Amino acid sequence: MRIDLHTHSCLSDGTEPPAAVMAAAKAAGLDVVALTDHDSTAGWEEAANAAADLDLGLVRGTEISARWQGITVHLLSYLHDPDYGPLVQMMDQVKRARWERAEVMVDRLGADFPIAWENVAARSAPGRPVGRPHIADELVAKGIVADRAEAFARLLHPRGSYYVRYWSVEADRAVELIRAAGGVPVFAHPGAVGRQRVVADAAIEALVQAGLAGLEVRHRDNPPEQRARLTELAERFGLLQTGSSDYHGSGKPNRLGENLTDEPTLAAIAAQGALPLIGGGRWAP
Ligand code: AMP
Ligand code: ZN
Ligand code: FE
Ligand code: FE
Question: What is the Cα–Cα distance from 151 to 149, expressed in whole angstroms?
Fold first, then answer.
């Protein structure tokens, strides 16, 4: 079975609507896909309807923005109750922080480049998360850079002068909230050395204490030596190991199914989550 547990739609910073992500997943030969927009469950309903029509398995998920000792940490939550108040409130808070931060970044960029906040804001919508990819798309539209990759490499990098941090919850608290909501927390791209410092083994151990279920070992941003380290940590702490594409439509080179998760791991996630998989008992453990 081909299982890819990390994708984004245009309800966060992917480029396609949820139904189109599901169609692309089917066309890529996937049997099961997870939709994991940033800090949002807004795409779940559309994705669920499309997946049912396509006879595709769907894991409803969210990629939650968090931090650990100043390092940005992304936590994938699978199959949680989307109406669990404390988690919804936390995601609303991080969305507000993202909107304030994006405006400050655009203000800074606007001092050097012809870029206007209203045009960036129009690329997302109230209630949706806004992120650097939306700023990147406006930089592309104005001819300032060729594509998102160049925008990130030249102007939006965390060590660049236009970068602004935003409030997000501590990762151990996020893991606890995900579990309290009935979700299954998996640390996304924990070895992404190209982005920022990588969190130390002790931090992963602390997240395990908080209830972490797994590590996204196979992700294109984890280089081979990090995958080896993460595999060793997963074995030491009894964690699940997932593999995923982190598909963003045409917004990133990541292709659906480029990394995969095995069936026993999906079964373990399904067994721990509060919600069923869409697509019926076929994928049930
Ligand atoms: P933000 O959440 O606003 O800090 O922006 C991070 C988002 O940008 C994540 O969804 C990443 O997948 C995406 N991203 C990071 N680097 C790149 C890149 N080089 N090209 C396109 N998207 C990227
Ligand atoms: Zn993204
Ligand atoms: Fe991420
Ligand atoms: Fe992602």
Answer: 5
